[in-house]
Amino acid sequence: MFKKPAKQLKESLLKLWELIPRWLRNILSAAVRIVLDFWRENLKVPVIAIIFGFLVGALVILAIGKNPLLAYMAIYKSVFSGMRNFSETIAYVTPLIFTGLAVAFAFRCGLFNIGAEGQVIVGMFVTGYIGFTWPHLPPVILLPLAVLGGALAGAIWSGIPGLLKARLGVHEVINTIMMNHIAFYLVNWLVSDPFKAPNYQATAPVPESIRLTKLSDLFSFEPASGHTGIFVALAAAVICYFILWRTTLGFEIRATGFNAGASKYAGVNTSRSLFMAMVISGAFAGLGGALQTLGVRYRVWEMAAFPEFGFNGIAVALIGKNHPAGVVLGAFLFGALMRSDAAIQMQADVPRQVVAIIQAAVIFFVAADEIVRWLVAKRKREVVVHD
Amino acid sequence: MQAQETPVIQMRRITKSFPGVVANDRIDLTVRRGEIHALLGENGAGKTTLMNILYGLYQPDEGDIYIRGRKVVIQGPGAAIELGIGMVHQHFMLVEPFTVAENLVLGKEPVRRGILDQKRAGEIVRELSQRYGLAVDPRAKIEDISVGMQQRVEILKALYRGAEILIMDEPTSVLTPQETTELIEVMRMLVRDGKTIIFITHKLKEVMEASDVVTVIRRGRVIDSLPTKDTTIDRLAALMVGRDVQMVVDKTEARPGRTVLDVRDLWVRDYRKTDAVKGISLQVRAGEIVGIAGVDGNGQKELVEAITGLSRAEKGSVILNGEDVTNKPPRRVTETGLAHIPQDRQKRGLVLDFDLRENLVLQSYYRHPFADKGILKPKEIDSYARRLIKAFDVRTPGPEISARSLSGGNQQKLIVAREIDRDPDLLIAAQPTRGLDVGAIEFVHRRLIRYRDSGKAVLLVSLELDEILALSDRILVIYEGRIVGELGAGEADEQKIGLLMAGIRHGEGGGGDVQKAGQTA
Question: What's the distance, CA A327 to chain centroid?
């Protein structure tokens, strides 16, 4: 009875599928594969953690005598109601995908890149610098130059701690933190003195020709901040997956991260793995900074404080279990929460800090679950070892 | 043994399942006071699971446990200790930089004004070691004493906490023949003192030597439980494996050819920067197995690591296939013609979190046909892995499983498969059957001989004398970083090698330096 319509549906879907251009089909099927891979590996933990995080948030809202449902409706509306809101959210999500990928990539090699923050900052600056220094270059040259320049700056910024780690064994956490501060004060000085534009606490703008198209212009809805950089971010997630699981370099990086002793035995140059993991990690973060300049800020502004993309990237990678698909999910969650903290205050009269509590609770539950899992895994391991 | 006394342990119809396997299937186990009870079975048979249940690490799905006739539920190791059950794990749970005394009292420390009472701790150790005849130095640091000594500390630790029943998980897997003999002595002494011992093992010889009663477990079920004196080694082997096992390896006379490995006056330092290998020279020729016998920690590890490029040689040279590979990076040595079954399969041999496919191409992932211009070819890797898994009989649900979830024997098969299939001229096998069961040992041994017979050179480093004697065409004995003797396959026996291993040269008598072999209890 039901077989026929089901079959028809399948056939029409297949036809529809074939209508899509081949290159897009390839990308789509790759994306589906990556998501499925993540789903199989470890989707459960983050989802449970997110639910628990929101439950804790609800308790806090109840405790201050407000209505959690109202608050969560406000969050929902400010993220999903209408293309404008969604596009505003995307603007928050885009840089977080890059920093999340950066942290996740390094972590696959057993490295803790706390320096995504600084790598974003140098990426923002170098892209801006290239943009305002050669504004008359044709965009086909200037755009890639500016984007790659930002990525390269991030790569160099992480490459220094990477080299120190690989050559001398200096711990990357200390050095990446130091590099954050160097980046912050260096760029702040550059934009407020040598490259300051008159009447601005910033540099000159990058030319219009290389600014990224707003999603609102692309799909014609009311103006909002989301820009085409989100597609680059999603592509970066695919590339990150590809490098890690489909290249010999990724194989070496993951092997080194899991077991450096066995990697050495197998002839892997573990120093090279460590260095390359840091460099690529920084390139992702630098790319995030580049798109931030080209898509949102247009100038390199003096910073009152760290922009926090890098630090939130750590949380995003944690929620995403250091998997590219998970990073996209985690970046969306964090971006959505960042987007909605004003709305929660205005519409539900709940202090915006509650959003930070929800974020913290989600991180806590992901981490706590990891502890539980680790204990279980350890026990299981013992059986295997002993038996 | 008084058969009428209430058994000290009775486990009735214990069942425990893990996802996909029934580890224990209605197991009955009865242990009487004052007996040494061997729990014999292959890897993965369910011995350790059963003992982990008794020690409170797992809860059984079904079944009851009676201790001294009283039904109990053992919620955790704490509850087990209160019931007088102690466990000596296969991998010791000791704090390396702490002293023997500190480790022994850890968790139940004698305290004076809130501070650990070192003097009292030392006394406790001396009292205990005198009472049970287990000599240890209370002030020695764990990292400085031999593995056999560390095991004594573990045993004393359990006794200090009032253990009447001692569970020992594969206690001899890390010991030398001499240390094993001593351990058996200690076990005898303990049961004379009224203790009860359950020891998990897959080594038939030890069951025959040490135990009063043996219970054989196969695939989660009790096959038989019988007094040791009523059975034979062959019968036990058949019970354990479920078929007749060939205990002796068939092998023809070696026909050595050209020299494949030539090590000349090699000096290597260990991580403490002291000389561990002191001027070793040796040759391995095509078509022969050269065995290196010796007590653990006499430079074997450093020797192998220097040959394979994993650590630096201070002096001397390593020539492989006529090419000088001294201090060359490991990949260079590997490509010159080396296969290496490392001593520590979990730390060196495998990336446990990688799946079987990734582990099987660990040495060759970057080469044709597994990669092209830096891009991996998953299909090629997958079909190669499937072929090897089949050819080497690795028991696994599929190639996408992580290496961590395989049993020790199957992990070793994975390494053997990977190394042998690459087919280089020299194979270095370091402790290739450590911790494996009879079936898996048979498998590895046959593969090594087959490799030799195909005209390859094999350097075998092993702490198991039986293994050295069974496989080697020539035997070199290593002692304190030097080769102290060379014996042909025909002239070697356990006695002769044992003396050399202990550093006693011919004609020197019995008064030599026997520190490393452990003190006489």
Answer: 6
Chain A residue with the nearest C-alpha to that of B357: A251
Which spans in B361-490 are helix H? 378-391, 408-421, 438-453, 465-471
ipTM: 0.82
- Say if residue B20's pLDDT is above 70: no
Measured over the CA atoms of residue A23, residue A29, residue A35 and residue A41, the dihedral's sign is negative
Give the gap in angstroms from C-alpha B359 to the nearest C-alpha of chain A.
10
Is the peptide bond prior to A144 cis by the omega test (within 30 degrees of 0)?
A: no
Tell me the nearest-neighbour CA distance from A317 into chain B, angstroms. 19
Question: Are B256 and B285 in contact, with CB atoms under 8 Å apart?
Answer: yes
Residues of A in Cβ contact (< 8 Å) with B90? 385-386
CA distances from B68 to A386, B7, B32, B414 (A): 27, 6, 9, 44
Task: Give the mean model confidence (pLDDT) for residues A235-256.
Answer: 95
Write out chain A residues lying below 8 Å of B355, CB-based: none
- DSSP sequence for A55-79: HHHHHHHHHTT--HHHHHHHHHHHH
Instruction: Return d(Cα B173, Cα B180) in angstroms, integer.
Output: 9
B48/A383 Cβ within 8 A: yes
pLDDT at A375: 47
Percent of chain B clearing pLDDT 90 (strictly above) = 49
Residue B463 CA to residue B468 CA, distance in Å, equals 8
Binned at pLDDT 50, 70 and 90, residue B89 comes out as: confident
Q: Which residues pair with B168 in a beta bridge?
A: B88, B199
Give B471→chain A minimum CA distance, Å: 25
Task: Specify which residues B226 forms β-bridges with.
Answer: B214
Model confidence at A387: pLDDT above 70 = no
Two tokens at B375?
């891009």
Say whether pLDDT at A43 is over 70. no
* Residue B270, min C-alpha distance to chain A (Å): 16
Distance from C-alpha of A109 to C-alpha of A255, rounded to nearest angstrom: 8
The pTM score is 0.76
A156-197 pLDDT, tens digit each: 999 999 999 999 989 999 999 999 999 999 999 999 999 999
State whether A258 and B378 contact (CB < 8 Å).
no
For residue A65, is it left (φ>0), alpha (ψ between -120 and 50) or beta?
left
As beta bridge partners, residue A280 has none
Bridge partners (DSSP) listed for residue B27 = B14
- Most confident region among B92-106, B359-373, B389-403 by mean pLDDT: B359-373
Interchain CB distance below 8 Å, A258 and B342? no
Q: How confident is the model at residue A4 (pLDDT cuts 50, 70, 90)?
A: low
Distances (CA, A) of A353 to A60, A332, A364, A367, B2: 11, 19, 16, 21, 73
A293-313 b/e (C-beta count within 10 Å ≥ 16 → b): bbbbbbbbbbbeebbebbbbb
| Helix (DSSP H) and strand (DSSP E) numbers for chain B | 16, 24
The pLDDT, as a whole number, for residue B415 is 94
SS3 B197: strand
**Which positions in chain B touch A387 (Cβ < 8 Å)?**
43-49, 407-408
Cβ B353–A258 below 8 Å, yes or no?
yes
